[in-house]
Amino acid sequence: EIVLTQSPATLSLSPGETATLSCRASESVSYYLAWFQHKPGQAPRLLIYETSNRATGIPARFSGSGSGTDFSLTISSLEPEDFAVYYCQQRSDWPLTFGQGARLEVK
Amino acid sequence: EVQLLESGGALVQPGGSLRLSCAASGFTFSNYAMGWVRQAPGKGLEWVSVMFNWGAKYADSVKGRFTASRDNSKNTLSLQMDSLRAEDTALYYCVKTTAVPGRVGDFDLWGQGTMVTVSS
Question: Of A42, A91, A95, which is closest to B59 when you measure between CB atoms?
Fold first, then answer.
């Protein structure tokens, strides 16, 4: 099973700042890495697929990068609605796995 | 409108069974693999199953106990859950995947979830 480890577990920032979240895979997932945003009481939302492609309707302040085992999600100029939990997920191999999640909170 | 609507969640005793359903609308259901992802209280997201038109894949934690099925004529995905355990307690999300030749796609549409509680 491919284990995804996200860091940091919690990131405290202020609106307007830039957030960088990391996701490390226990083995290569090629570029088959996605990022999701999850807010309380809402369904998770696909932000980034295949490492760096923004999903439909996702603002340009969200960007993804990486390859192989090391990936990152960058959110520039944080807006109040960006504070949430973020998950990475791989579909390179079965079983599909998610990272443990990273909480982005208001400082 | 493109949406997924889950139903069937309930309180069930350990060892019991439950059947979840997911009604899809707004897209050509038969063209996409569909799946289930769950979130236990206070925990992260966990993949459960993906149902293709040719068969299904399951997480090891549910293999042999859960069975996914789909009815393309009714745009419905189902999850038959047997031999339920306390650790199956979770919010179960129905998900649609993107169409990717030769492999499973990304989870690009999620329902609001249906809660399953396994407790005596």
Answer: A95
Measured distance CA(B25)–CA(A68) in Å, rounded: 36
Phi, psi of A82 (to 5 degrees): -85, -10
CB proximity A34 to B under 8 Å: yes
Average pLDDT value over all residues in chain A = 98
Residue A25's contacts (CB-CB under 8 Å, 6 or more residues apart) are A2, A3, A4, A5, A33, A68, A69, A70, A71, A90
List, for chain B, all residue ranges whose pLDDT scores fall below the cut of 70. none
Tell me the shortest Cα–Cα distance from A105 to chain B, in angstroms. Answer: 17
* Phi, psi dihedrals of residue B96, rounded to the nearest 5°: -100, 145
Spatial separation of the C-alpha atoms in residues A4 and B61, rounded to whole Å: 18
Question: What count of CB pairs under 8 Å joins A to B?
Answer: 56
